Amino acid sequence: MSSSFGTLFRITTFGESHGPGVGVVVDGCPPRLPISEASIQAELDRRRPGQSRLVSQRKEDDRVEILSGVVDGNSLGTPIAMLIRNQDARGKDYEDIARAYRPSHADYTYDAKYGVRAIAGGGRASARETAGRVAGGAIAQQLLALRGVSIVAWVDEVAGLTAAVDETVVTREQVDTNDLRCPDPDAAAKMIERIEQARKDGDSVGGVIRAIARGVPAGWGEPIFDKLEADLGKAMLSIPAVKGVENGSGFAGTLSTGSAHNDVFYRRDDGSIGTRTNRSGGIQGGISNGEPVTLRIAFKPTATIMREQETVDRDGNPTTLMPRGRHDPCVLPRAVPIVEAMFALVLADHCLRQAARS
Amino acid sequence: MSSSFGTLFRITTFGESHGPGVGVVVDGCPPRLPISEASIQAELDRRRPGQSRLVSQRKEDDRVEILSGVVDGNSLGTPIAMLIRNQDARGKDYEDIARAYRPSHADYTYDAKYGVRAIAGGGRASARETAGRVAGGAIAQQLLALRGVSIVAWVDEVAGLTAAVDETVVTREQVDTNDLRCPDPDAAAKMIERIEQARKDGDSVGGVIRAIARGVPAGWGEPIFDKLEADLGKAMLSIPAVKGVENGSGFAGTLSTGSAHNDVFYRRDDGSIGTRTNRSGGIQGGISNGEPVTLRIAFKPTATIMREQETVDRDGNPTTLMPRGRHDPCVLPRAVPIVEAMFALVLADHCLRQAARS
Amino acid sequence: MSSSFGTLFRITTFGESHGPGVGVVVDGCPPRLPISEASIQAELDRRRPGQSRLVSQRKEDDRVEILSGVVDGNSLGTPIAMLIRNQDARGKDYEDIARAYRPSHADYTYDAKYGVRAIAGGGRASARETAGRVAGGAIAQQLLALRGVSIVAWVDEVAGLTAAVDETVVTREQVDTNDLRCPDPDAAAKMIERIEQARKDGDSVGGVIRAIARGVPAGWGEPIFDKLEADLGKAMLSIPAVKGVENGSGFAGTLSTGSAHNDVFYRRDDGSIGTRTNRSGGIQGGISNGEPVTLRIAFKPTATIMREQETVDRDGNPTTLMPRGRHDPCVLPRAVPIVEAMFALVLADHCLRQAARS
Amino acid sequence: MSSSFGTLFRITTFGESHGPGVGVVVDGCPPRLPISEASIQAELDRRRPGQSRLVSQRKEDDRVEILSGVVDGNSLGTPIAMLIRNQDARGKDYEDIARAYRPSHADYTYDAKYGVRAIAGGGRASARETAGRVAGGAIAQQLLALRGVSIVAWVDEVAGLTAAVDETVVTREQVDTNDLRCPDPDAAAKMIERIEQARKDGDSVGGVIRAIARGVPAGWGEPIFDKLEADLGKAMLSIPAVKGVENGSGFAGTLSTGSAHNDVFYRRDDGSIGTRTNRSGGIQGGISNGEPVTLRIAFKPTATIMREQETVDRDGNPTTLMPRGRHDPCVLPRAVPIVEAMFALVLADHCLRQAARS
To answer: What distance in Å separates residue A2's CA from the closest CA in chain B?
Structure first.
């Protein structure tokens, strides 16, 4: 179990989906930083279930309580602990699960690793754990905002349906205009239709989230192993259901040639150095180059589906599982704030790491 | 600068391309492990330039010297330091580079970060640094071999040309049958032709390396943040020129549905639990499930091309660069052992981390 | 701020003395370990103020709530978060403190470091923070108990008055027979008298705690830098008011000669290898040798005294401080469980680290 | 094995006394720092054997080679690797050692931990390993010097003979005026006589080194667990033969009362805040307060003596050992630069950690 992330700006999350609560300790946040509990709550509200018909209908308020590290709306420089109580435990839905391994969930692997088939422990693999990340990431975003860095993520693809989004100008307000968090309204409508179809079918779909950070100065990222794209990649691949990540041109860039792919340097009007294209995704040699940092993140279709599936029980005997209750036919809308949170946590950490060098 | 990787099985690399040498310290290698210097050298030989007409013709022997931690062919449990002397410094080729920033190289970002335009320092961003990783990874592979784990990587795509490779059976011997390290001979021939064309054009191409680890037992990987795919993703994205990484179905999986994508559990003949398909790429919830662990890694086209390119000098003044000498029109053949090394380093680390739990 | 301790068995504490609460997240605790909440509470009760007339009379129940990581009395292998609500904030006592720096407290240095004079933040320097350590250490002790390792600490000196204690046989029950936690009743009586005198004088006294761990097998400790005595020394010096630490013969050993000081090896009746004396304090070359591990820890006199003291305010202007309310004339009785907790945290961590090697 | 030390300014040492060499990789050194190889060599010369009749007569040049990270006398910001070749292997002296465990050495514990009785591995426990620390510490001292921080350590006690040294003014030049590195010439003469007597007796003596860092600004040190005194304590206790460490008043302070022990604040002439006394040893609440940081470190008598000693062989059979060759009757003169190096490494690390906060 490794529930900590970051070197200098560091979070430690805790909690299962079916215990007293989930939470996070943020250690390394600089002192005298204005901390808005309302902003933290707003990010949690974007992540929580039940916020729209598109996502799981579980009712969870996800009300955050700051336990330490903040006085009169300012950080002390001490650890900021935050607790979100669980409300909707509803263990009965999970009786079947206790009996057999859900396909493509973490039930079997947690059992193989820890030797314990506690559902509450499997609950650690629940997306509910990410509430702590979102709370911690909200603080990271407040630190970054003071340094002129902002992050926007959005749903860019669902089940192969793609949005047309100008990444250079898209805003979080545009993203939040619909429940899907896709800033292309026409594409969003089609995607929502597709998701509704999946729900009716008791099935699920996947997709791609894109994310961009603007205002990142040149110089963040720590070669050789803590390159900015490496830490971002790890951050994204630690999110449940993520199976791939790209920076800049990503896999598409493999089809290009060096002469077509290289980003040419030029002098900006303000005298600083920029690149005319951004196939590098804002990172060269593991270090930010002053251009926007861009990511694409692949989410597999939700493993939970409302259909009978073959599987085995703990002893390996064949059986079937027929889930009951509620499910997320598409996790992407709720994953947008999680992607932003993890993005912010990496950048805040590297911001402090670079400061240590001066 | 963060030149260490791993928690319990941990490497620290050092060295620039134009100094006395490069190397690595492996800390945390268990004692009484047979260490074959010949095997380490063999891996380095697969990575070094000049090994075939496909890659850079720089002459470097890359002769490894073990400085510590091994006596009579066995590890002591103490740090294993290895040194590879530089031989072919040839600083003159780099005079132009000192004058201007090479497009899509790390020249500008290192300067922005460290405020030093030392070519030898830019040399830390050189792929030569990866020699230390390969030496360390060779030891990790020897540790894993004793536990029945083996890794194979191969060139799977070049400039959009794809190989047909059965990942379940491909061997390293098949991979090494041609200079390209692509085990599909027909595809390899076409890819080699494409690379030769790029060389003639003074241009470069990118591609995709696939990699598989067999024999990984269920239970490796440390949720929440050190999930196996997260650490593997970080490892791969820390390799120069990598712009994307996938585990299992990756981006293609986003086009599927849950009912089609889920991997159904079954009992194997030996009584263990397996999955009938492996879209999860051997990892569920961040923990290995006993199936082969699979990766795809995207390499952009080499930034070094033999063509005049626009750029700016250190003061932002427009200028052009015309490289001289030698270049790698495609880094993928030499990247295969680097991918294997990083793969092995992650698995060896998680092997020890899981052992700590027992 | 670095509020985490340990490599594999790792705690992160949070909380100020004057906020919602204090607590700890224990990450890395192996799964399927019986966790007794009653045992955790019992250790907290030994640390809390108000338990006897010898210590501060603040009324704090220090009631622990386990927030995660434990189901049905067993660890899941996931993070164990524990919360202890603050009850007796009483900020008014601290108005004077806000005005001026208390001598030999952390008021000035926290202000110099963090630039914030929040009392609640200074409250992070309060001994109240150690409640989280004690809760985490209680779990470490439960892990160690299963491996046959037990720890006893006791008050061995107060203001130069020394106890006569046979470290080879002393038990925690004997330690807890008096409020002072000194298992030599005659010495304890004199020490208590001395402490009462200090209280009447509005003054305070210091002393020495000794601690021993029995049952530690040979082989724990990680040279070169994470030697067992080094990690133990760090653990003890991180406790408020500690100014010195010794392992084995300590400073007294510097008066000896090699021929008199060396511990001679012999074969025990059970065939294992022991030493006839234990001047090494159970550690040689940073690794446990199977003999009891012994420590002595120096605590300075409590900085809080009920006397007017000269000092300066935040601007450096001379002023005086006259504390009000309650104080601990001697912290040692309450420090005994803290020492045991930190001792256990180091041993549990090294237990897991050595297991990783096998 | 944990051969790395430090969080941001981080060293990794490697090497056994009887292999190709020992060395260090310094990672995290800021760029553009003047690095004097001569200064590094000078520190190594103070540590090496054979420099005076007081210490072991082994002939070792300890010639340092910088392998990376420095160009034209300036750091690049990349890892600085340094190698010191072994010259005087002389394995024959160690044949007896291979047969039996030397009392109070690490022979038995390394065997118990690693299961390997390789002398070269036992050689990792050799003080020769500290050459890497001294080389790394020399760079830390160059970083600190630019920030006005200087460190002096000296031999303060040998076998109970004490020096009279004014810690507020003592200089390294005064320390180095005699082979013992004791700046009190009269006491030094008596101590040298005592050491010579021990050598004639085939015996050894221990003692105390004191150390002071001047110019440390208020604000360094990271509560809760990486308090400055905690990290310094760990650093010192990781040095071979150290059995105790004190900061400020240390164990003697336990005899005092709060009213006598507290350090009163006042305003210095330059307007800054100081304390009239320094019983806190420059640290309060784990953070430097601007006063000199003071340490006392206890070294046990060298375990190697030229006398026949009882012991057991690997199977536990009783036997005797009669060492041959050369020995250090007192390690303290050579330990002075090691103490300074470890002191500097901790301070350089905390200097960067505090910078990260700004």
So the answer is: 6
Low-confidence ranges of chain D (pLDDT < 70): 1, 57-60, 88-96, 118-122, 358
Mean pLDDT of the region A76-85? 97
As a whole number, mean pLDDT of residues C247-260 equals 98
Chain A residue closest in CA terms to C122 = A76
CATH value at residue D187: 3.60.150.10
Are the Cβ atoms of C353 and B356 closer than 8 angstroms?
Answer: yes
* pLDDT tens column, A255-291: 999 999 999 999 999 999 999 999 999 999 999 999 9
Q: State the residue range of the domain holding D43.
A: 4-355
Separation between Cα atoms, residue B198 and residue B207, nearest integer Å: 13
- Work out the mean pLDDT of chain D and round it to a whole number: 93
What are the tokens at C118?
Answer: 């929040």
Q: How many helices (H) and strands (E) does chain B have?
A: 10, 18
Chain A: nearest CA to B72, how far in angstroms?
32
- Give the pair of three-digit tokens for residue D16: 């056994």
Residues B125-137 have a mean pLDDT of: 95
CA–CA separation, D176 and D181 (whole Å): 5
- Judged by CB atoms closer than 8 Å, whether chains meet at B115 and D79 is answered as no
Q: Nearest CA to CA, how far is B38 from chain D (Å)?
A: 18
For B247, the token pair is 């585990």
Between the CA of residue D279 and those of C128, C310, D244, D250, what are the distances in Å? Answer: 24, 16, 18, 8
Predicted pLDDT at A122: 61
- Looking at chain D, which residue has its C-alpha nearest residue A354? D356
- Amino acid A99: pLDDT: 80
pTM: 0.97
Computed from CA positions of residues A119, A121, A126, A132, in that sequence, does the dihedral angle turn out positive or negative? positive
The Cα D116–Cα D113 span in angstroms is 8
Q: Which helix (H) or strand (E) holds C131?
A: helix C130-146
Sign of CA dihedral C29, C35, C38, C39: negative
Would residue C69 be called left, alpha or beta, if left means φ above 0 and alpha means ψ between -120 and 50 degrees? left
What are the E-state strand segments in A177-264? 207-214, 242-247
8 Å CB contact of A355 and D353 = no
d(CA B244, CA B300): 9
The position carrying tokens 């320094």 is D278
Q: Contact D253/C13, CB-based, under 8 Å?
A: no
Q: What is the mean pLDDT of residues C329-344?
A: 97
In this prediction, residue C151 carries a pLDDT of 98
pLDDT grade, residue C312 (50/70/90)? very high
Q: Do A357 and D352 touch (CB under 8 A)?
A: yes
Tell me which residue of C42, C45, C330 sits closest to C190, measured CA to CA: C330
HSE toward the beta carbon, residue A11, CA cutoff 13 A:
27
Q: Are A125 and A101 in contact (CB under 8 A)?
A: no
* Alpha carbon distance B191, C246 (integer Å): 67
pLDDT of residue A118: 67
Give me the number of domains chain C comprises: 1
- Residue D2's DSSP bridge partners are C224
Q: How far is residue A25's CA from residue C3's CA, in Å, rounded to a whole number?
A: 10
Nearest CB to C355; choose among B7, B31, B358? B358
Q: Which residues touch B197 (CB under 8 Å, ≥6 apart)?
A: none
Interface A–B counts its CB contacts (< 8 A) at 384
Read off the pLDDT of residues B15-43 as tens digits, 9 standing for 90 and up.
998 889 999 999 999 999 999 999 999 99
* Least CB–CB distance from D14: residue in B3, B28, B79: B79
**Taking CB atoms and an 8 Å cut-off, how many pairs form between chains A and D?**
27
Residue of C7, C30, C357 with shortest CB distance to B357? C30
* Residue B265 confidence (pLDDT) above 80: yes
Token code pair at residue A56 = 């799981």
Q: What is the pLDDT of residues A12-54, one digit of tens each?
A: 999 998 899 999 999 999 999 999 999 999 999 999 887 887 7
